[in-house]
């Protein structure tokens, strides 16, 4: 019986051989232990990772959420740049609606009494000129302050710049106060109201938990240890939990994330569905590559003088934008994910014999005996013969 002769008859012959597994019992304590140990590892994986950690038996749903915010606090400023002034929420919070993203003004450059007229460009924004030929009428540089009129004018006694048509006097935003104007904003508080829904499980929750009554809400303030459920946060606490210093951040502004994690386990034996707050600075504050730091924008307030001329006060506002970010998934026992995940996990049990076979036939000291017994080629006259190849296993 030459099976590897290569003639066409023999390859056809082996193609139509039927192979059927036969049980070979190996009474070896070592191999038996390895086999049971490998099975135990698979079972531990299924129980520990798939069931306990991944909760593979649960159906999941993602969150739908809405957030409203309300900032409170007052400040009084008395600095050399500005008249003494009282500030309330309508002055320093933008936009006023109380969205999930709100801005608290902390520092500013104010340019009052601007009117539409002509004035020489700032020397740091454009090249100096010598005479009118250096200026081009109608040209406007997007980084400049206005549209050039074609004249070269004295900016100061030493510098001449091109005249522009603009809101004059021009804003000089290099004069940013070194200490935040509204330093008192660190003591402002914000009330965050957050309602969420998991539509698949028909679960509705809000971050003002059922045990919070209105008198507690009037006086409480969030503290991770003493008042972890209070939805009123002091801005300074939010920022220090994010690892930043309020007064530092208030000078040039920044973006801060208030993260609310609503991960819920809705099974009756877990029954956990509470918000978890965390805070994190979201804009880049890389200590080395710190070009263009902070957050600012400009807005203006418009007036008419008694003689009918329009004037405006331009404000370059620096401050902290708070973004409330709500996330989470809910899980609840479901029969379909249970079957699918357990089936997939237990299929690893089917790999165990293949691994043990390989170990047995390559590493065991009695591998020659085992491989002779492993494949039996049945000869037509009814007598069984061990592998014709002698030691190789699995040859056809
Ligand atoms: C904030 O309030 C604390 C006491 O509640 C006070 O010591 C601190 O000076 C206040 N901060 C500012 C900038 O006013």
**What letter string, H or E per element, gives the SSE order?**
HHEEEEHEEEEEEHEHHEEEEEEHHHEE
Measured as a percent range, the helix fraction is 10-25%
Whole-number count of domains:
2
Bound heterogens, unique: 2-acetamido-2-deoxy-beta-D-glucopyranose
Task: Output the structural class.
Answer: alpha+beta
- What is the CATH homology-level superfamily of the largest domain? atp-gated p2x4 ion channel domain
Q: Report the sheet with the most strands, covering strand number, pairing sense and barrel closure.
A: 8 strands, mixed
Please report the first level of CATH classification, the CATH class of the largest domain: Mainly Beta
Rough outline:
elongated
- Any idea what the CATH architecture of the largest domain is? Sandwich
Mean pLDDT: 87
Strand share of the residues? 25-35%
C-alpha-based Rg, rounded: 38 Å
Report the strand count: 19
Low-confidence stretches: 388-396
Quaternary structure annotation: single chain
If helices are DSSP runs of H or I spanning 4 or more residues, what is the number of helices? Answer: 9
Helices and strands in order:
Layout: H1 8-15, H2 29-53, E1 58-62, E2 64-72, E3 75-77, E4 85-87, H3 89-92, E5 93-94, E6 101-120, E7 147-154, E8 160-168, E9 189-198, E10 203-206, H4 214-219, E11 232-234, H5 235-241, H6 246-252, E12 254-261, E13 264-265, E14 276-281, E15 296-304, E16 310-327, E17 329-333, H7 335-346, H8 352-362, H9 367-374, E18 376-378, E19 384-386
Parallel strand pairs: 12-16, 13-17
Antiparallel strand pairs: 1-17, 2-9, 3-4, 5-6, 6-8, 6-16, 7-8, 9-10, 9-11, 12-14, 15-16, 18-19
Helix pairs in contact: 2-7, 2-8
The protein binds 2-acetamido-2-deoxy-beta-D-glucopyranose.
2-acetamido-2-deoxy-beta-D-glucopyranose binds next to loops.
């Amino acid at each position: 019986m030459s099976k590897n002769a290569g003639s066409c008859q023999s390859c056809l012959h082996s193609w139509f051989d039927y192979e059927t597994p036969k049980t070979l019992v190996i009474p070896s304590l070592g191999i038996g232990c390895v086999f049971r140990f490998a099975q135990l590892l698979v079972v531990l994986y299924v129980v520990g990772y798939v069931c306990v950690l991944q909760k593979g038996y649960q159906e999941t749903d993602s969150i739908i959420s809405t957030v409203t915010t309300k900032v409170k606090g007052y400040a009084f400023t008395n600095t050399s740049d500005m008249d003494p002034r009282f500030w309330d929420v309508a002055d320093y919070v933008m936009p006023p609606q109380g969205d999930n993203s709100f801005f608290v003004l902390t520092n500013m450059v104010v340019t009052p009494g601007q009117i539409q007229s002509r004035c020489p460009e700032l020397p740091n924004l454009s090249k100096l000129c010598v005479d009118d030929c250096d200026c081009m009428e109608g040209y406007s540089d997007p980084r400049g302050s206005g549209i050039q009129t074609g004249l070269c004018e004295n900016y100061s006694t030493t510098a001449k710049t091109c005249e522009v048509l603009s809101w004059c006097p021009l804003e000089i935003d290099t004069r940013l106060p070194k200490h935040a104007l509204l330093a008192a904003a660190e003591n402002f508080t914000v009330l965050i109201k957050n309602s969420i829904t998991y539509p698949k499980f028909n679960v509705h929750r809000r971050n003002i938990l059922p045990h919070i009554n209105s008198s507690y809400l009037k006086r409480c303030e969030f503290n991770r240890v003493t008042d972890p459920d209070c939805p009123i946060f002091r801005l300074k606490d939010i920022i220090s939990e994010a690892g930043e210093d309020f007064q530092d951040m208030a000078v040039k502004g920044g973006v801060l994330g208030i993260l609310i994690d609503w991960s819920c386990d809705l099974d009756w034996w877990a029954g956990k569905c509470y918000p978890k707050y965390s805070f994190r600075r979201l804009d880049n504050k890389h200590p080395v590559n710190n070009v263009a730091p902070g957050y600012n924008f400009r807005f203006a307030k418009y007036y008419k003088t008694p003689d009918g001329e329009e004037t405006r006060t331009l404000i370059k506002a620096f401050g902290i934008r708070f973004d409330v970010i709500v996330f989470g998934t809910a899980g609840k026992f479901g029969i379909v994910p249970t079957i699918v995940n357990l089936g997939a996990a237990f299929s690893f049990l089917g790999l165990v014999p293949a691994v043990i076979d390989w170990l047995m036939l390559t590493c065991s000291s009695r591998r020659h005996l085992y491989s002779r017994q492993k494949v039996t080629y049945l000869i037509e006259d009814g007598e069984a013969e061990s592998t014709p190849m002698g030691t190789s296993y699995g040859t056809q």
